[in-house]
Design brief:
Elements lengths: L2 H15 L5 E2 L9 E2 L1 H6 L21 H24 L17 E4 L11 E9 L5 E8 L2 E6 L3 E3 L3 H4 L1
Antiparallel strand pairs: 1-2, 3-4, 3-7, 4-5, 5-6
Helix pairs in contact: 1-3
Length: 163
């Protein structure tokens, strides 16, 4: 890559890193927005233009712009998966971690979402299994109500929950 191409890629990677949700903006059950590092930089969350998915295309068939876009998409996919996995640290049975409750803001772990698009939802209802432990939750999102397994959800803690 040339210096200009690498600089462009680094700026896009910086935007990806600064788009990560940190905590809910408010405790309002209809608010699906999260505080991001972008809020401190720009006063709002970061966005990007939609682009065709290029991850599975042979790099030798792409022009220079598409190659940079493919590199950005590969970085996004890996960053998103590793960041959400890090937030979902499991402590097994040794220590009790905070369980989800109704009204919590969560990141929904999705496989095919574009860069800088974090799917967020609020827990509307928890469905316990036969052992009484919740396994599934109904979530309200910006697009409607969905049902997801708890292992596909990652809690965004409020400041009072972190203390």
């Amino acid at each position: 890559m040339t210096f200009e191409e690498l600089t462009s890629l680094f700026a896009q990677v910086e935007a990806i890193l600064n788009s990560r949700p940190i905590s809910p903006l408010s405790s309002c059950p209809t608010d699906h927005a999260a505080l991001t590092p972008g809020h401190f930089l720009l006063g709002r969350s970061l966005t990007s233009l939609p682009a065709p998915m290029l991850e599975d295309i042979n790099p030798r068939r792409l022009d220079r712009y598409q190659l940079i876009e493919q590199t950005r998409q590969v970085f996004w996919r890996r960053w998103q998966a590793e960041y959400v996995t890090e937030l979902q640290s499991r402590s097994k049975w040794k220590t009790r971690c905070r369980d989800l409750k109704e009204g919590d803001l969560v990141i929904i772990k999705e496989d095919n979402i574009p860069p800088l698009a974090w799917r967020l939802g609020r827990v509307m209802k928890l469905h316990p299994g036969a052992d009484g432990v919740p396994r599934v939750a109904d979530l309200t999102t910006a697009r409607g109500v969905i049902r997801r397994a708890l292992n596909r959800l990652c809690l965004l803690l409020d400041e009072e929950d972190k203390a």
